[in-house]
Amino acid sequence: MITRIIPYAGGRDLDASRDFYVDVLGLEVTMTDPVLGLRSPDTPAAQVIVTPPGTPSADLGIDVGTPAAVDQAHAEVRRRGLRVTYPLTDEPWGVRRFFVEDPGGTVVNVLAHLS
Known about the structure:
The chain is of the alpha+beta class. Helices cover 22% and strands 39% of the residues. It folds into two domains: 1-57, Signal recognition particle alu RNA binding heterodimer, srp9/1 (2-Layer Sandwich), CATH 3.30.720; 65-115, 2,3-Dihydroxybiphenyl 1,2-Dioxygenase, domain 1.
């Protein structure tokens, strides 16, 4: 079950990005490390992730709901011979994820929360 699709934005200056998304657009900060996570206060699944320079990043993220679904997607990606650009990993901030390049070249972060 897909629970959300999250766009990623590059962040050359995370403070300026935070000010823009919070002060101009009214989003609220949900995470500051290792990326800047923002969401709508009215629709929590409406989110933006801002990645600082040097951080592994994707073009978008797809939350597939459960760690088992991440594993299933990873197995299918490997079966199809698609390019994995970031390995299957349990991150210290509580997500299981991997990055895959889709057939058009878009890098997708396939993820789910561990708990």
